[in-house]
Amino acid sequence: MAVLAGCEAVVLAPAGDIAIQQRDLLVFSVLLMLIVIVPVMVLTVWFAWKYRASNKAVEKEHDPDWDHSTHLELVIWAVPLLIIICLGAVTWTGTHLLDPYRPLDRIDESQAVTEDHKTLQVEVVAMDWKWLFIYPEYGIATVNELVAPVDRPIRFHITSTGVMNSFYVPAMAGQIYAMPGMETKLHAVINRPGDYVGFSANFSGDGFSHMRFAARGVDDAGFDQWVAKVRAEGQVLDRETYLELEKPSEKVPVIHYSQVDTMLFDAVVNMCVTPGKMCMGEMMDIDRKGGLGVAAVNNTWPLVYDKFARRGDAVFGSGESYVMQVCTPLQAERAAIEANLRRQQNAQTLVRADPFNRLTGAALVAPGKVPEAVAVNAAQAGPQTLPAVAASLTPASQS
After folding, report:
1. What pLDDT is attached to residue 59?
2. What is the DSSP letter of 317?
3. pTM of the full predicted structure?
């Protein structure tokens, strides 16, 4: 206990209303289960002491024919059943009331959310191995620093660049995953000013241990001063700067950006920050309309990402290539076998194209000379065999 006194029990003493409700749910569930756990632990010690081998007095109480007790069965089944019913009810209500996607309906237990409470929008991007926070209302962004005014609802829009992470500020709310190519949401509020810590609760590689950020709760005046400071000292966060920031790095200090591309977060979610790359939303829209075709040429022609120049070694060489058909490895192997069989059949067809060109005991036909009978019969059979021969000589296109 003396060693544990140096620990900060932030989960049991949070500063945000959502985290407080989650704490209460955790404490209630533990106390409810202790109704069974404590008596079982006490009775285990009591039975071991009472029925020890040296206690000869209990031998008289032994009844070898005892096998049932209605009262004992009632306690054994009724108590756990009531606990499960209570836990189920609390879990069901807590799941809906504390849904991360559900907007807040209260600031704390004594203050409801009204029209005067303007929600703060924060866009969160989990990188390797740092956190990017974008404040779209103020046109600023920070790295590894989250500042929010107290008693103001916050709506987090969370995504990731390439590896799944978990956004977690224990003093404010529970964790929620940050995944590439999609956006998750979290509604929270911080009710007490102070300096807190946020981090990733999901292992994501070498720099995971240092993937932490400062989370500060300030009053409205302090938040306005901080915004003014970022605008005065920060850099410009455009797409080129973002692509450099996106590269893996560890122990990144706090960075401020005074200007941010308004469409940057949307491009990160759609995985198209790189110029010339098709966004996932555009790709899904094409699929929704029936897929690629002649009508989609105008949509795909301006794209240059991985179109004329490939990253790494090209599969089909350095020249331009187009997808004619998508197949599985087994289908490709089967197509190769069938093509080989067709080549063998075509070769046999060529050999049998002239049924009169055989050894008949009178030797082979001299080169360049065709007997009259052979020419007549071949002319009669020609229309039936020439298409097959011509088809076999035509190069086959492969996908």
Report:
1. 81
2. -
3. 0.69
